[in-house]
Amino acid sequence: MPTSPYLTAMRPAYGTGTLADVMPTALAALGIPTRGVNLRSSELAGVRRVAVLLLDGFGFHLLGQAAQASATVGAMHHGELGTLTPITATVPSSTPISLASLACGLPPGEHGIIGFTVRVPDTGDLVTHIRWEGAPDPETWQPEPTCFEQADAGGVVCTIVSNGTFRDTGLTRAIYRGADWLPAIAPHEVAEGTLAALARGDRSLVYAYLPDVDTAGHFHGIGSPQWLEAVAKVAEAIDGILTGLPRDAALLVTADHGMVNITDRLHVDRRPDLLTDVEAVAGDGRMRYLYAAPGAVEDVRQAWAEAVGDRAEVIDKDEAIDRGWFGPKVTESSRDRIGDLVVACRDTFAIVGVEGEPPHVARLIGHHGGLTAAEMAVPLWSYRNG
């Protein structure tokens, strides 16, 4: 049984408030008709400039601990500054899926970036969306118009403020089309870049990204001194933006997912029996996709169910889709990318030691991708100057 309410399962709130609704909220404020739910219609009415700051790994249920490191975060958490509400990540609750949902304003079932790693149906190759080395073609793999393309078509100047290393990656080509790129790495650089980008044009949309909290959580764990230091660093970016925020602008702060500290692991590389009739293992440590050999789905399900016991649930792709994990609509191309079986980890359990993944991944402390409230609930904090 879960030891904390934060470890209970949480359904993605499609239609009422997920990451797929954050950019549509910003676009609506800027007068751009778009899909999705407007989560701040009255508060943002009349603004001409919107900055969306995404803090990787900064889950809603981590804010209490994070408040120890920053007075600004504490004020956010206690309702003393701006407006804070919880929304949910999409599924799986991992970075590329969440970033695509935010940037495209769509659930994963529609944009198709539906796993950290998935098998390409036509070739059988695996694509890791963060690295995206080679095929498939990003514009074909994710053909839906991005929110930046929609905003640009409506006369809004769009800018990405993030590490320049990501500028020409496949993931960028897939989800950030329609925006210019302003390289920035350190939190103070991100703050300065965000303010500079907000000043562009008559109406502007800025998306800024900082990975520090996620990195610290992976390697050192939630609540560690290194994690608190990372929180303090990214809070400097919030402070910097607020200090110079134009009077006709608003700031939205959110996250792509939360995180749990892992205490129990199944090492696939130590269980070769689990690879019988399995053509590929994909996904990530908290939600694995299993691609079974033809006719072997039930045998693979039974083997994995026995191995994980009550630490995870093993279901087929149709059941995962029917539960609405990937959104109310799942295209045929997206359906084909999901594993024949989905292994959703519970509590603080992870499945590691998968071929092709860097060895250090099996040793990471913080993980995400699962369905617990600790991973799924993310903040939407808004502040409007003036």
From TrEMBL:
One Pfam short name: Phosphodiest
SUPFAM superfamilies: Alkaline phosphatase-like
Secretion signal, residue range per the UniProt entry: none
Gene Ontology terms for molecular function: hydrolase activity
Protein name as it appears in the record: Alkaline phosphatase family protein
Organism of this sequence: Glycomyces lechevalierae
